[in-house]
């Protein structure tokens, strides 16, 4: 293990050095400027998110030896502000002969009296939960008594028991782990006094048959006067992560679902994990890719996988999740530009003042008499390439249409969004080389897609069909490499 872990670390060091010297963003058109990506190799889920001793920690499912999923390690990075990340040596590597010999799968981190403690899944023929600790948040020692949790309760398959998320409440440690029963996803709740001995409390929640066949990466936390359970289900259309708002009863261990929401309607959002930072904010980071992807254009450049912008999660007064990019991202803003209000359409209206592949846009549109309004992004000068963010009044949907976005897969990914009479469409859009993140109506509706356009496709335009629409306002900034 030492050799393989050491080799993995060497790969990261060399890749980071190459990144520093060669600035891969300059040659690789799709390497994000400011979203977190691995130095080289494959990345999936965010793991172990924590704010520990004044530093943000991001771990991630990592295969350092190539741009495809393989034996899972935990990559590691730290940041003072969720924007400027520094790569660190690999935190966990599989131990041959150990309970994690087949991979160190997803898990979480907590501060246990000044010791950063990670609980993760050891993958093999069975999936078991393991503990590793670090007093300095740098070097991790696996608990000699691993696994700390060897089997799920009766009736749940030992080969589908993973992704422990741990938190502290009511004077105890709690864990939710993902599993399934009779083809229905389930979140299992456990309790512990010391992170080492766990007792099963209850099935916190379970699919009713429509919510996926296996729940990966469950996350359960208090928010406002309620609790939120987020799961990443297998067996659902496009494997969209779901957020259930409800209440957890610590006495019975049961989570009562009050309302169901899709966390992000785009194609590329999965396995989100949250944590509470020192300011009491609930911050969520998701994997900005999808297991449903067939094309991975960045593999040609030796890497795959990106994290979303860190998102603040709040609940509206009616209990709807509201997602917003952390304000720290605004420190990357340069070159403000704006477009004066005015009518547009039918037809195309190119915005010469706004161009770029790394942009922060705030746009307000009154669809007026139009049946469809669209914000065209990453548009080529000849108009053949574009990523189309479109609002369709008749169907009441907001969609990212990447049919003509460039390399990679096409597809139109839509979210229900019915505007009330007289209500304007309010959009915050973040672009970063190969990503589009859209937060509509104060973050009630979110859509995230990866796109792979030519580097020269940097145009922005508006289009209305079926009648005239009105641009109420548009402000934009370039987002710099941190
Ligand atoms: C989710 C997931 C987890 C698992 C990990 C393996 O994307 O399948 O359930 O722990 O990825 O890399």
Jot down its keywords.
482 residues, mainly beta, Tachylectin-2, Chain A, Jelly Rolls, 7-stranded antiparallel beta sheet, 1 helix, 34 strands, binds beta-D-fructofuranose
Can you describe this structure?
This protein is mainly β and 482 residues long. The protein folds into 2 domains: 2-325, 5 Propeller (Tachylectin-2, Chain A); 333-479, Exo-inulinase, domain 1 (Jelly Rolls, Sandwich). Helices cover 4% and strands 52% of the residues. It has 1 helix and 34 strands. Strands 22, 23, 25, 30, 31, 32 and 34 form a 7-stranded antiparallel beta sheet that branches. A hairpin with a 6-residue loop joins β3 (73-79) and β4. Beta-D-fructofuranose (FRU) is lined by residues 44-45, 61, 72, 105-106, 121, 162-163, 216-217, 270-271.
Quick structural overview:
The chain contains one helix and 34 strands. The chain has about 475 residues and is mainly β.
* CATH class category name of the largest domain: Mainly Beta
CATH homologous superfamily heading of the largest domain:
Glycosyl hydrolase domain, family 43
Q: What small ligands are held by the chains?
A: beta-D-fructofuranose
Low-confidence stretches: 16-25
- Count of discrete domains: 2
CATH architecture of the largest domain: 5 Propeller
Q: State the helical fraction.
A: under 10%
Cα separation of the termini: 34 Å
Q: State the helix count.
A: 1
Structural class: mainly beta
The biggest sheet, with number of strands, parallel, antiparallel or mixed sense and barrel status, is:
7 strands, antiparallel
Strand content: over 45%
How many DSSP-defined strands? 34
**Overall pLDDT confidence:** 95
**What form results from the Cα inertia axes?**
globular
Fill in the CATH topology of the largest domain: Tachylectin-2, Chain A
Radius of gyration, CA atoms, in whole angstroms: 22 Å
């Amino acid at each position: 293990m030492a050799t393989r872990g050491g080799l993995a670390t060497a790969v990261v060091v060399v890749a980071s050095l190459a990144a520093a010297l060669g600035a891969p963003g300059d040659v690789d058109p799709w390497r994000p400027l400011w979203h977190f990506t691995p130095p080289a190799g494959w990345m999936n889920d965010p793991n172990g998110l924590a704010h520990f001793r004044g530093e943000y920690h991001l771990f991630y499912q990592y295969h350092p030896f190539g741009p495809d999923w393989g034996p899972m390690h935990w990559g590691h990075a730290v940041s003072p502000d969720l924007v400027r990340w520094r790569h660190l040596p690999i935190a966990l590597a599989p131990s041959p002969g150990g309970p994690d010999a087949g991979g160190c799968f997803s898990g979480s981190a907590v501060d246990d009296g000044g010791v950063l403690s990670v609980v993760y899944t050891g993958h093999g023929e069975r999936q078991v939960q393991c503990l590793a600790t670090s007093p300095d948040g740098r070097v991790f020692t696996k608990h000699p008594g691993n696994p700390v949790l060897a089997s799920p309760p009766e009736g749940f398959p030992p080969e589908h028991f993973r992704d422990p998320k741990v938190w502290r409440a009511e004077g105890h440690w709690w864990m939710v782990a993902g599993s399934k029963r009779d083809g229905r996803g389930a979140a299992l709740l456990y309790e512990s006094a010391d992170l080492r001995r766990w007792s099963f409390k209850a099935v916190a929640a379970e699919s009713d048959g429509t919510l996926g066949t296996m729940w990966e990466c469950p996350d359960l936390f208090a928010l406002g006067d309620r609790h939120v359970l987020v799961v990443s289900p297998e067996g659902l259309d496009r494997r969209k992560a779901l957020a259930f708002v409800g209440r957890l009863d610590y006495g019975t261990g049961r989570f009562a679902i009050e309302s169901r929401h899709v966390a992000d309607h785009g194609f590329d959002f999965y396995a989100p994990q949250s944590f509470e930072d020192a300011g009491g904010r609930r911050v969520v980071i998701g994997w900005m890719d999808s297991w449903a992807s067939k094309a991975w254009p960045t593999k040609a450049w030796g890497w795959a996988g990106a994290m979303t912008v860190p998102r603040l999660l709040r609940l509206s007064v009616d209990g709807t999740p509201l997602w917003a990019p952390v304000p720290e991202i605004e420190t990357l803003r340069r070159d403000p530009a704006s477009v004066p209000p005015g009518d547009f359409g039918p037809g195309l209206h190119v915005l010469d003042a706004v161009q770029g592949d790394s942009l922060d846009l705030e746009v307000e549109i009154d669809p007026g008499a139009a049946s469809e309004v669209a914000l065209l992004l990453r548009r080529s000068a000849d108009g053949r390439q574009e990523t189309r963010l479109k609002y369709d009044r008749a169907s009441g949907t907001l969609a990212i249409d990447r049919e003509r976005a460039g390399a990679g897969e096409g597809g139109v990914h839509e979210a229900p969004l019915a505007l009330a009479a007289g209500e304007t469409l309010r959009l915050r859009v973040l672009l970063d080389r190969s990503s589009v993140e859209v937060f509509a109506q104060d973050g009630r509706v979110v859509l995230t897609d990866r796109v792979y356009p030519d580097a020269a496709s940097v145009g922005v335009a508006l289009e209305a069909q079926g009648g005239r629409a009105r641009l109420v306002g548009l402000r934009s900034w370039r987002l710099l490499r941190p």
